[in-house]
Specification:
Radius of gyration: 22 Å
Helix content: 10-25%
CATH superfamily of the largest domain: HUPs
Number of helices: 7
Largest sheet: 6 strands, antiparallel, barrel
Number of domains: 3
Order of helices and strands: EHEHEHHEEEHEHHEEEEEEEEEE
CATH architecture of the largest domain: 3-Layer(aba) Sandwich
Number of strands: 17
Structural class: alpha/beta
CATH class of the largest domain: Alpha Beta
Strand content: 25-35%
Shape: globular
CATH topology of the largest domain: Rossmann fold
């Protein structure tokens, strides 16, 4: 059994649990980024030291494997293409599909492993009726990571274990402290390694050229004299995402003729990016109609079972940590599908994933398509 040891507590406890179950465990530390991994924001060297310390306590071997070239080619290049096109991608989803459960899985198989394991909060179950593997939500609802794993296929799931998917985070930390793991109290990582805690716009500036343009007010209804007035200047549409509130530089400006959900002192939110005219449209008020979408279209679909679900009622997440939202799936054609929501969804964002669920079973999903979003 080969376990991906990240240096964090979840993968550490996963390795310990598997050893307790009688598996012969080998740890693999994946180095996926090396451009500035010695910076204050992203230090894989520190994580490797933590992973090695864990391996020593548990009593397993650990190998350091460099997947930086594969990551840059399969994940980071796509990340930049999406941002340059004005969309907001989720590289963690692509990293799981292309690196952790492809490059890493292939490496483990070459070592002779029968299966791999990671510290994700999710579960795998073999459906005896269909003979297919199902991807289930982790039992801890606050930590469930099935959203990030929805692109995994049958071959990948059949060779994967998620040991902590059956546990709550509090129990994982309790186990880590009880067995004396050095990272028992280590803070959970946030975001992808190559960005880390650094200012996001500062990072993108290194790769994407700034193209400043106007920020326009979409709060009043079209036809109102105040509609479309220029109220600021953006640094480049790639640096903004739908629903964004911070970093707009227009906090002190009041709206005129604000619609329901707005108001003179309500905050501003990004509602639309017009790439053709290089214009950023913002609205005032969290519940402004331009931030609510009753339906969406997604493309580049991937289904865990190898085939899409039948048209009908399901549930979906259009972003991580969002509560499941009732929806109806239709127009399933090729790699695309449409979703209609009884309750409009907030800030549906092109480039993010719409992930489908049938109860606790994650069915798969697709990438939200900018041209097909329907605003109410």
């Amino acid at each position: 059994m080969v376990v991906g040891l990240s240096g964090g507590v979840d993968s550490a406890v996963s390795a310990w649990l598997l050893k307790q179950q009688g598996y012969e465990v080998i740890g693999i530390f994946m180095k996926n980024w090396e451009d500035d991994d010695d910076s204050e924001y992203c230090s894989s060297n520190i994580d490797f030291v933590d992973a090695a310390a864990v391996a020593d306590v548990i009593g397993i071997e650990i190998e350091h494997v460099n997947f930086a070239a594969e990551y840059k080619d399969r994940v980071f290049a796509e990340f930049l293409r999406e941002y340059q096109a004005g969309r907001t991608p989720n590289p963690d989803i692509l990293c799981n599909a292309e690196i952790k459960f492809k490059a890493f899985l292939d490496h483990a198989m070459r070592l002779g492993a029968e299966k791999i394991a990671t510290g994700h909060y999710a579960r795998v179950r073999l459906n005896e009726l269909t003979g297919k593997h199902e991807l289930l939500k982790g039992l801890d609802p606050s930590k469930d990571q099935s959203y990030f794993l929805h692109r995994l296929n049958q071959a990948q799931l059949s060779k994967t274990l998620f040991p902590v998917g059956e546990l709550h985070k509090t129990e994982v930390r309790r186990i880590a402290a009880e067995i004396g793991l050095p990272n028992a109290k280590k803070k959970d990582s946030t975001g992808i390694c190559f960005i880390g805690e650094r200012p996001f716009r500062e990072f993108l500036n290194r790769y994407i050229q700034k193209e400043p343009g106007p920020i326009k007010d979409g709060t009043p209804a079209p036809g109102d004299k105040a509609y479309g007035r220029t109220i600021g200047k953006h640094e480049g549409l790639s640096f903004y995402t739908l629903g964004q509130r911070q970093g707009l530089g227009i906090g002190g400006i009041k709206a005129k003729g604000a619609q329901k959900g707005g108001g003179e002192h309500a905050p501003w939110f990004v509602a639309r990016k017009d790439m053709e005219k290089n214009t950023l449209w913002v609205v005032q008020g969290h519940d402004h109609p331009l931030l609510l979408s009753p339906q969406l279209h997604a493309q580049d679909a991937s289904w865990v079972a190898g085939e899409p679900p039948k048209p009908g009622a399901l549930a979906a997440k259009t972003r991580y940590r969002q509560a499941d939202a009732a929806c109806t799936i239709s127009d399933i054609e090729g790699a695309g599908f449409s979703l209609v929501f009884p309750g409009a969804q907030w800030a549906v964002t092109p480039g993010q994933s719409a992930v489908l669920y049938d109860g606790e079973v994650c069915l798969g999903g697709g990438v939200i398509d900018a041209s097909q979003i329907s605003f109410r």
